[in-house]
Amino acid sequence: MSTRAPDTAAAGGMEMPGWLDRLGAFIDRTAGFWQKLGELESSAHRAELDRVRIDRPIYVAGIARSGSTILLELLACQPGVATHRYRDFPPVYTPLFWNRAFAHVYRTDAPPTERAHKDRILVTPDSPEAMEEVLWMRFFPGCHDNRKNQVLDRTTSNPAFERFYVDHLKKILLVRGGGRYLSKGNYNLTRFAYLQKLFPDARFVVPVREPLWHVASLMKQHRLFCAEESRDPRILRHMQRVGHYEFGLDRRVINVGDEEAVRQIEQLWRDGEEARGWARYWAMLYDFVLDQREADPALAAAVLLVRYEDLCDRPEATLASVFAHAGLPATPAALAAMAARLSQPTYYRPGFTPAEEEAIAGETARTRARLGYA
Asked: Span of the secretion signal (predicted)?
């Protein structure tokens, strides 16, 4: 989704191209057919897929606005790394068919534009993006029902999904000509154990951000998307189809097994206590990740926590640890070039009242200490 449209350019609004809305709606309505088509694609290319090995897939997952996109971009630009791109949507189920036959519907010379989040990140149809959530929603229909525990662990079994998903990752590796699969998906935060069951050598990178700034960014994005989705309902439908419920008119809490905590967070938001609600949500999700790591040594070894502030203030050393954890080579010159792209945001500042700052501090104190924040 681009950020500009002819009728909204002056206002800097988001654009939802008509063809993308119509094709996305058609594929969403006929998802069963597209799943079958994806399975047929796998059968037709079985010999080719069987020669592909999934080696140490890399998963970037955190709460939205924590730095996951910039980490995705920096990892994706390395030789041999393959990931989903904007051009892979809407027919995510059939990446070989779509990329080899119809990907030209996206311009290859499209100039970079600031993405919908208005956060300085420029994108083109070839930019890496989170797209695999479409598959999770298809095979796990309740994965965004916040009345249900959304955690998938080593006891989870879904053979149909697992066959389709393994083949899908191999297709992305084929399409992109890569040897390492890279994914960004914030909802994968609750799926690490299940993914490690599928891929024992998987590597997980979890960006973390100091809660005062993180909450400010989440609130800013929520206001932005609520306004744009109210202006153009097609934007809301697009966000629902791609599985982005982090903010906007259909904002949903991730349920990690504590239904009362979910209820309380939603009530805080309904009561207008946005800052406290987001702060409690921040603490709940990062406590879940920390608790899971402490209880599972194999997972602890596979999960790297990356503080956004370290990424901006000590970029070369922090990126060196990220690349080492992911098992990707990076020369000092490459690290220096990537570090030059990183800086703390200057396009907004938190504007909390003293009561809101106190609420954020109180709600996140224990979790902040666990993450090493003073």
From this structure: none
